[in-house]
Amino acid sequence: MATNSKHTDNPTIVVPGSFSTPPLYSGFIDQLSTHDYETVVIELPSVGGSTPATMTDDAAHIQSVIAGLANEGKDSILVMHSYGGIPGTEGVKGFSKNDREASSKKGGVRALVYVTALVVAPGASLASTIEGAGNTDAVRVEGDFMYLNPIINAQITFSDLPSAEAEAWAAKMPHHSTATFGGELSYPAYRYIQT
Predict the structure, then answer these.
(1) Which Pfam family name is an example for this entry (predicted)?
(2) Exposure pattern of 22-50 as b/e (b: 16+ CB <10 Å)?
């Protein structure tokens, strides 16, 4: 987990995403830092590990980070990218700013931001949302993990960068657990928290 520290009344920006480790967000963190925002980039259990983690594992990890901030009296904004939309939405249960205030507690999630992220209905999963998720030219599945093709991923994910730079960034994206595919959303946080 990467964190930059700022001492302001601004909410903390919390970022989970798939195939993403904190260094991939360094430019984002630097930009937010210049505006006095503390940023926490979460390394999900499903990313780059040796054990296949589930969506529930990821949601629990996100919730533990948000809970830690809330228990320090800090407000946060959850900025979710790609698959991160599902465990992020699930993980804020009980930690909205309104929920916390109703219990006379400080801190909590003020808003949800979905950046090219999956926003699914309760009962839906990654597998039920993306038909044919699995082996393609862009994604290779081996056992419990999927790997991105860095050349194709560079063209999709980093399309605004020069080719060589895009490919260098894409090559840094680790594998992701296929066990996340079946995790169904049970808590539609977007109905209760500002988006």
Answers:
(1) Abhydrolase_6
(2) bebbeeebeebeeeebbbbbbbbbbbbbe
Beta bridge partners of 4: 39
The pLDDT of residue 195 is: 85
| Cα-based torsion angle of the residue sequence 31, 41, 151, 134 in order, rounded to the nearest 10 degrees | -150
pLDDT at 1 (0 to 100):
61
What b/e sequence results for 94-119 when a residue is b if at least 16 CB atoms lie within 10 Å of its CB, and e otherwise?
A: bbbbebbeeeeeebbbbebbbeebbb
List of residues 6+ apart from 146 with CB closer than 8 A: 134, 139, 140, 175, 176, 177, 178
**Is the CB of residue 1 less than 8 Å from the CB of residue 40?**
yes
Question: How much is the pTM?
Answer: 0.90
Q: Which of 43, 47, 42 is nearest to 178 (CA)?
A: 47
Q: What is the mean pLDDT of residues 84-111?
A: 95
Average pLDDT, the chain: 90
Give the pLDDT score at 132.
59
Residue range 2-191 forms a domain whose CATH class is alpha beta
